[in-house]
Design a protein that fits this description.
It is a single chain. The protein has a single domain, classed as Lipocalin (Beta Barrel), CATH 2.40.128. The protein has one helix at 2-51; strands spanning 54-63, 71-74, 82-87, 92-97, 101-111, 125-131, 136-143, 148-152, 169-173. The longest helix has 50 residues, at 2-51. The protein contains 1 helix and 9 strands; from the N terminus they run αβββββββββ. The chain starts with a helix and ends with a strand.
Length: 174
C-alpha cells in the first residue's frame, strides 16, 4: 500500500510539473507574436511617415459595371473630384478638388492601437487629416503595389477596392 501511495504521489507530481511546464510555452508564443506585430507596426509607421511626403494624383480606380469587368482602370475614364493631395514633411498639406478648390490641412500618421490585439483584422497604421474648417477624416493608409490608397474606414482596416469611395482610388506620386 505504501509503495502504491508513493507511486501515486510521484505520478501526481510528475503530472503537475509536466502540465505547468507546457503552459509557459503558450505564454512565450503569445509574447513572441506580440513582439512580432509590434515590430511590423513600428517598421510600417516609420516607412509611411517618410513615404507619404510629396504630391499624389489620382491614377487608377476600381470599377465594375455591366459593360466593364471588375478591375483597375485609368482614372480619366471616370469622374473623380480630387485633383491631388500634397503632404509636406512638417505635417501640413493641401488638397485640390475640381469643384471645391484648394483646402489646407494638417495630418498625423499614428499607430493603430487595435492592431497589436487583432493584427489580421486591423491596419497597423492610420492617418488623421484635419482641415482648416476643423472637419477631419480618419484614413487607413495603404501603400500597395500600385500606389497610395487613403481608405475611409470606420473599422480601421484595409477595405477591398470594391467597397467604393476612396478605397477604390489609387494615387500615384509625382
Amino acid at each position: 500500500m505504501k509503495k502504491s501511495l508513493s507511486l501515486f504521489t510521484i505520478l501526481c507530481l510528475f503530472s503537475c510539473a509536466f502540465l505547468s511546464s507546457c503552459g509557459g510555452d503558450d505564454d512565450n508564443e503569445e509574447v513572441d507574436e506580440t513582439v512580432k506585430f509590434q515590430k511590423i507596426q513600428e517598421e510600417t509607421f516609420q516607412s509611411y511617415k517618410s513615404e507619404i511626403i510629396g504630391t499624389w494624383k489620382p491614377y487608377q480606380v476600381w470599377q465594375s459595371t455591366a459593360t466593364k469587368d471588375a478591375g483597375w482602370y485609368p482614372i480619366s475614364d471616370i469622374y473623380w473630384d480630387v485633383i491631388y493631395y500634397k503632404f509636406n514633411s512638417d505635417g501640413t498639406g493641401e488638397e485640390e478638388n475640381k469643384y471645391k478648390g484648394k483646402k489646407t490641412f494638417t495630418y498625423e500618421i499614428y499607430k493603430n492601437p487595435d492592431y497589436i490585439k487583432y493584427p489580421t483584422f486591423y491596419a497597423p497604421v492610420l492617418m488623421k487629416i484635419t482641415y482648416s474648417s476643423e472637419l477631419y477624416n480618419n484614413y487607413v493608409v495603404d501603400f500597395g503595389t500600385k500606389g497610395l490608397r487613403l481608405i475611409t474606414s470606420i473599422l480601421k482596416r484595409v477595405e477591398a477596392p470594391s467597397s467604393g469611395g476612396n478605397a477604390a482610388v489609387v494615387y500615384k506620386k509625382e
